[in-house]
């Protein structure tokens, strides 16, 4: 069975990838700069900060 930290990490990486692709699409689509920067920041947080925090908390 898959533990909760593994599921949380997988979901976080998937959400981060979706946010990253959305931000890249917004940059190409000439969206407002603040929105694109916020999406990139959220993507980086989901791709790095959350998985690292989960890993350190779980004692991996």
How would you describe this protein?
- With 60 residues, the chain is mainly alpha-helical.
- It has 2 helices and no strands.
- The longest helix is centred in the C-terminal third of the chain and has 26 residues, at 33-58.
In short:
The chain crosses the membrane at residues 6-24, 36-58. By secondary structure, the chain is mainly alpha-helical.
Q: How many helical elements?
A: 2
User: What is the typical, i.e. mean, pLDDT?
Assistant: 93
- Give the number of DSSP strands: 0
Name the helicity range.
Answer: over 70%
Which structural class should the secondary elements be placed in? mainly alpha
**Major beta sheet summary:** none
H/E element sequence? HH
Shape, principal axes of CA atoms: elongated
Strand content: under 5%
Distance between the termini: 17 Å
Global Rg? 14 Å
Number of domains: 1
**Uncertain regions: pLDDT < 50 for 5+ in a row?**
none
Keywords: Membrane, Transmembrane, Transmembrane helix
Transmembrane segments: 6-24, 36-58
């Amino acid at each position: 069975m898959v533990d909760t930290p593994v599921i949380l990490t997988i979901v976080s990486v998937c959400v981060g990838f979706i946010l990253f692709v959305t931000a890249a699409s917004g940059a190409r689509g000439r969206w407002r700069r603040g929105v694109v920067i916020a999406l990139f920041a959220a993507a980086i947080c989901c791709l790095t900060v959350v998985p690292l925090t989960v890993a350190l908390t779980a004692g991996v």
